[in-house]
Structure to design on (389 residues):
């Protein structure tokens, strides 16, 4: 499963985002509260279910909208200059290691200082929070490299492998590979053997950027004054109100409103027994959603998976006519595959035995055979024919 980490300074709204994103209605998830432990949960990305287009009865979507699970990690808060102290903390690094991408939550309302202490709304420049996480992580990486530099060079000489391999070994725990190191040196245009401090810091930033893609989420946008929003406008980020999303998901769970995560608006259900204060709170959220095109929480999850991680959704089936598995369940699975994946990759993802016995695949839309080198498209429905089952 793809895993996303929610990171940022204390009090920016990480846990609120986590709670909102992992609270799913019964129609979306078989277990409405999909929290595994305090820091690990299941969230969902939103996509179109092909059942409507294909005219098949489906029980795995809500009215043609399909929610596909991803793991979510609520990472321990990080404060500035953490890399200078005892390091970033084992729990922080462990969470980072598990993640494919990072949602970096910043307080877009400028209501928390650099350490996350509450201050007057708008008194902190939110731009300052954007750079800090990447800076902390890359400086921490740089610190490790520079402390071990002599040893790494000796290793590289003695064992007849490259410095790049040695560096990849040091950061293997973070999921960094030789390819990452190689690509980062290319992009920065640095020769590792002769690089100075500045170049090495830049190299670490790039290594961090490509191994842990990061999406900035401007949270608390609901209370952000115009000057803060203006500061952030034009930056590559998604404005959000995690608190608003949490309120909506709870209201939907309680059958007060009709709302699906990622909708641009919601509808108060007739007969909903709401107090005047609750109605006013919902009205405020509605105004926010109108301005920001939704609450931003679902948009952040979807952007991280579909844009940052470049995933497509593929639906494997066993019966290409009824679009079912062997038990007759319609469109039972939705897999998040890397763009460029082939039917053989899909077969391996279903099961390694099925991958090994792969013969060919059938595109259920056309009924035609597709080759193992064919590139899968978003929304494809694929039957795999394998010598093993
Ligand atoms: N106005 C507003 N407040 C929020 C939002 N998200 C979180 N908060 C508040 O910010 C404070 C810190 O939130 P929390 O999720 O515990 O932050 P964490 O330390 O990053 O996990 C709490 O008082 C939340 O209610 C939001 O979207 N809008
Ligand atoms: Mg928290």
């Amino acid at each position: 499963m793809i895993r996303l980490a929610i990171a940022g300074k204390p009090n920016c709204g990480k846990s609120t985002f986590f709670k909102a994103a992992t609270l799913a209605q019964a129609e979306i998830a078989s277990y409405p509260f999909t929290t595994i432990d305090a820091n690990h949960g299941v969230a969902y990305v939103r996509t179109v279910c092909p059942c409507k287009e294909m005219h098949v009865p489906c029980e795995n979507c809500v009215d043609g909208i399909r929610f596909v699970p991803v793991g979510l990690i609520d990472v321990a808060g990080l404060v500035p200059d953490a890399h200078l102290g005892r390091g970033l903390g084992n729990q922080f690094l462990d969470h980072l290691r598990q993640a494919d991408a990072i949602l970096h939550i910043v307080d877009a309302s400028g209501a928390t200082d650099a350490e996350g202490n509450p201050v007057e709304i708008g008194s902190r420049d939110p731009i300052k929070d954007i750079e800090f996480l990447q800076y902390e992580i890359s400086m921490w990486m740089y610190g490790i490299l520079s402390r071990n530099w002599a040893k790494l060079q000796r290793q590289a000489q003695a064992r007849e492998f490259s410095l790049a391999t040695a560096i990849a070994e040091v950061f293997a725990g973070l999921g960094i590979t030789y390819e990452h190191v190689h690509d980062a040196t290319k992009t920065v245009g640095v020769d590792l053997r002769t690089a100075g401090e500045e170049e090495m810091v830049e190299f670490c930033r790039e290594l961090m950027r490509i191994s842990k893609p990061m999406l900035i989420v401007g949270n608390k946008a609901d209370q952000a004054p115009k000057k803060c929003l203006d500061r952030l406008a034009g930056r590559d980020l998604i404005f959000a109100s995690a608190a608003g999303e949490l309120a909506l998901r709870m209201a939907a769970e309680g059958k007060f409103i009709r709302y699906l995560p990622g909708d641009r608006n919601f509808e108060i259900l007739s007969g909903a027994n709401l107090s005047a204060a609750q109605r006013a709170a919902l009205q405020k959220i509605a105004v926010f959603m109108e301005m920001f095109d939704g609450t931003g929480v679902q948009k952040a999850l979807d952007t991280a998976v579909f844009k940052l991680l470049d995933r497509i959704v593929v639906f494997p089936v066993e019966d290409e006519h009824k679009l079912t598995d062997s038990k007759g369940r319609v469109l039972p699975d939705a897999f998040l595959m890397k763009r460029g994946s082939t039917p053989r990759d899909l077969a391996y993802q279903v099961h390694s035995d099925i991958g090994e016995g792969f013969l060919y695949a059938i595109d259920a839309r056309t009924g035609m055979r597709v080759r193992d080198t064919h590139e899968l498209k978003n929304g494809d429905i694929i039957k795999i024919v394998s010598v093993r089952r």
Q: What stands out?
A: The pocket of guanosine-5'-diphosphate (ligand 1) is lined by residues 8, 10-16, 77, 219-220, 222-223, 241-243 (CB under 6 Å). Residues 127-147 form the longest helix (21 residues). The chain has two domains: 1-123+211-309, 311-386. Residues 187 and 206 are 8 Å apart (CA to CA).
